[in-house]
Automatic annotation (TrEMBL):
Gene name of the encoded protein: tolR
Protein's organism: Dokdonella ginsengisoli
Transmembrane segments: 21-40
Pfam hit, one: ExbD
Complexes and interactors: The Tol-Pal system is composed of five core proteins: the inner membrane proteins TolA, TolQ and TolR, the periplasmic protein TolB and the outer membrane protein Pal. They form a network linking the inner and outer membranes and the peptidoglycan layer.
Family: Belongs to the ExbD/TolR family.
Entry keyword Cell cycle: yes
Annotated compartments: Cell inner membrane; Cell membrane
Protein name: Tol-Pal system protein TolR
Coiled-coil stretches: none
Membrane topology: Single-pass membrane protein
Length: 147
């Protein structure tokens, strides 16, 4: 009697790596990173003023939106006189002016005693008027003896 196992050929071991599970994991990670990458940019791009800030040198007269202590808005277009203005009229006037003069600087001058929310609201109005860049005006710090 011959044993059954002797005639059977022995199988050789495979020395290959099955990479299919690794490809699946890689694709899942790729999808996760593609979904989460746009969510990482949640901040607002702002430029904070420096302590030794220099004044802006510009050939054009800036458009100045002023906010007084009570939160009333005033508009100065170029070399014209400062005039009180309502929020809706401000958006319309600034929008038209910036469309004609896209490189004109637009500045917000807020009273030191004004509520920050009122100054912020003026900036929101300028954003709704499609102003690309808004600057904040300030006075240089004076020495203690000069006051």
């Amino acid at each position: 009697m011959q044993s059954y196992g002797r005639n059977r050929k022995r199988r050789k071991l495979k020395a290959e790596i099955n990479v299919v599970p690794y490809i699946d994991v890689m694709l899942v990670l790729l999808i996760i990173f593609m979904v989460t990458a746009p969510l990482l940019n949640l901040g607002v791009d702002i430029q904070l003023p420096q302590s030794a800030a220099k004044s802006i040198q510009n050939d054009k007269e800036p458009v100045v939106v002023s906010v007084d202590q009570e939160g009333k808005l005033f508009l100065t277009l170029g070399k014209e006189q400062r005039e009180p203005i309502e929020a809706d009229a401000l958006v319309n006037k600034i929008s038209a002016f910036v469309r004609e003069n896209p490189q004109v600087p637009v500045m917000v001058a807020g009273d030191q005693r004004a509520d920050y929310g009122k100054i912020y609201q003026a900036m929101v109005l300028l954003q709704s008027a499609h102003v690309p860049k808004v600057g904040l005006m300030s006075q240089p710090v004076q020495a203690e003896g000069a006051r």
